[in-house]
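Here we describe the complex-level prediction in full. Unlike the single-chain runs in Section 2.1, the three entities below were treated as one system.
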Amino acid sequence: MNIIPVPKILNDLPLVASRGDKVAIDMELFGLDQKRMHRPAGRFGSLACTSDGENVYIIFDGREVEPFLKNIEEATWLFHNSPFDLGHLRRWTTIKLRKRLWDTLLIEKIMYSGWYDNDQMGLNDLVRRYCDVYLEKKFQKEFKETDEWTQEKIEYAAKDVIATWRVYHEQRKVVSDEDLEIYKQIDLPTMWLTLGFKGVKVDTKRWIEVCAKSADKAKEIKDELDFNPGSSVQSKEALLKEGFHVSSSNAKVLEHLAKKTLLAQQIMDARVYTKRVSTYGEKWVDQFVEADGRVYSSWQVSEAISGRLSSRSPNLNNIPVRDTPEYRECFIAGEGNSFVIADYSAQEPRFAAELSGDKRLLEIFNSGKDIYIEIAREMFGETITKSDPRRADIKEIVIGSCNGLTEYGLAKKTGKTKKEALELLERYFSIFPGLYEYRENVKSRHPKYVKSVCGRKIWMNSYVYGWERVGMDSPLQSSAAEALKLSMIEFVEKWGCNPIILPSHDELMLEVKDEEAEHVRDILKQTMLDVAQRLHPSVRPSVSIVIGKKWSDKK
DNA sequence: GGAGACGGCGCC
DNA sequence: AAAGGGCGCCGTCTCC
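The structure predicted for the assembly as a whole is:
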């Protein structure tokens, strides 16, 4: 394996590049906290670029960023993980949305989603795969710990940017037109949108009140127990003492056991409350709410193999809602603003209908009626109400039917016997044979990869147990993700600015001025419907949308 | 004492 | 042997 030779480093001459030139750019910051990489923390370290893969131009003063970038304005910019650099560079200059931008990380994820894991997507991994080059990464820690520059560190910064430049040229040779279209039409515009997300305002006082209540309850229950219910090892041990041998102490198991022993219920309760204290406690506020009262998450455009967006530091995609709607009441619109909250109904089942072409399922969706009640009518020959427990069972089946749910799993989930569960599944698939075929096809065709409706590839690894379940589900999940991304892109195009504060898989939350809310609601709804209709033309789409002052004002 | 695996659980 | 998918984060456990 090779290493990159010490580059020629120039810091007295500006690089001037023009249209057609490819300029790799890389930024180093001092003193960044790993969990807050996306926030305006840390101090300017360096900005380096190269247009020929040999000579590196580098500056060490943030005040030079603006003229530095102006000189290469016309060129195509190459980054590895551009949101990091772009987000921080905005602290020293204005960065406008540009299409001439190649992100080697985003491209690699589009090309090799499911083939390589996320931990094999670093610049060092790419330069090893593409160029057989070894790239030293040990300096990252040093940037965190000290502001001192050494010759070695300068060389490291220079080598990084050369690696990016080299990887670009190799990727260019092998990337397919279809992958490039996904990049240009979907992921790159989405990346720019996520950079423009405003934070969400949080009522911190209320939040702390909510979690304080849970803290009290957690303590109460824990005091009654002589072991730590947060430990699976200790919980299993305690249950064994009462005569219950279990291989797992998770909620599903405990729920069954709760009928037989109080202990199971106690462990469950303790976990519910400690979860709220640990994950959604005071620490959450301390860590993530900025001085302006808002939370700024880090949004990843394609961290998930399906191309779903993901969120971290903090993860805004898993804020409690079922048992504790109080948390979402803490997400509030700013003074004089309203939220517009929209979500796609039964989005993945709709894509299942589209992709399987199942006749009966298509009819049900296109009838515009409640699909779960309609399916129940087919299955049981009677009309059930919304509160009938069978509706929840059917929901499980509808969602599970396309990601490989078995009678065993269904039985466990619903508390039915295996025989009952099998009967339900069989009846379901006899009504929707197209769905069954879709499911079985994945196994029998044994595809190298599956695709979303827009053509995003998800590679299968048949050596991994359960690969066929990923194969069934990925086209649905990734198509749904595309619908959401395209809705965002097209809405912002129409509206002219970006008021998005929180996307969540099949849901969008916008914050706009009160007087604009109704207008925005109408445009957003129409946009989402248009996009969905385009992506699943055989299925009538459905979007519910409301205007509110809190996230919880949903339904 | 730190790193990483694991179990568990919040959401869609 | 395991028994719908996708995430991120927490505390515990284990190992060095």
